[in-house]
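Input structure tokens:
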């Protein structure tokens, strides 16, 4: 089974991936943000490095999905390949941080790759307001994220909502995280686990 967690920067994807992997004995697949050779450069000069960054993520995520489907174990994935295209690349193009030529080239590659893969068996979307995102980003203290702008996060949030509204590829669970602390509050985590169990039971 392939479970995936979607959500904006700072929404809690990695934390929830870790907690759910432990609870359900799923194998976690994390986003390789800390080893991405373009990420620091991207935040220093988005226009110069946007295409390189997105192609790196696309390649990484495609390999992840191929490995997940070949894996005999159930896997939980931190962020999906769809977010790369529908949220991040689209947003960079609309902000004139990725040229139309690069964006169209990127989309062509994305469409080819996704024609070879299946969507997750369950998508969990973590919905968070911009203040929550900012608080979480500040709390984890990654140096390269200090330059992330509020308008950038808001624009990403708007795109997430549009994407989720139209998402029909498979079962979807939306979790509003603003008033939750699933890392420290067991009741909050239990509520999410109960909702996931209900969705999973409906898959069979």
């Amino acid at each position: 089974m392939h479970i995936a967690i979607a959500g904006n920067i700072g929404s809690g994807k990695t934390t929830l991936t870790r907690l759910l992997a432990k609870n359900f004995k799923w194998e976690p697949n994390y986003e390789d943000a800390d080893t991405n050779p373009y990420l620091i450069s991207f935040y220093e000069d988005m226009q110069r490095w946007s295409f390189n960054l997105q192609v790196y993520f696309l390649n990484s995520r495609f390999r992840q999905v191929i490995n997940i489907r070949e894996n005999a174990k159930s896997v939980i994935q931190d962020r999906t390949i769809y977010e790369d295209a529908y949220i991040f690349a689209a947003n960079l193009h609309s902000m004139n941080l990725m040229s139309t030529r690069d964006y169209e080239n990127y989309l062509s590659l994305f469409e080819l790759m996704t024609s070879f893969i299946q969507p997750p068996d369950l998508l969990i979307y973590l919905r968070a307001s911009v203040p929550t995102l900012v608080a979480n980003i500040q709390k984890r203290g990654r140096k390269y994220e200090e330059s992330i702008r509020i308008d950038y996060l808001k624009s990403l949030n708007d795109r997430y909502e549009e994407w989720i509204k139209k998402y029909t590829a498979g079962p979807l669970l939306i979790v509003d995280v603003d008033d939750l602390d699933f890392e420290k509050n067991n009741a909050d985590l239990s509520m999410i686990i109960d909702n996931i169990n209900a969705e999973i039971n409906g898959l069979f």
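The first strand starts at residue 2 and ends at 7. The chain has one domain: 2-201.
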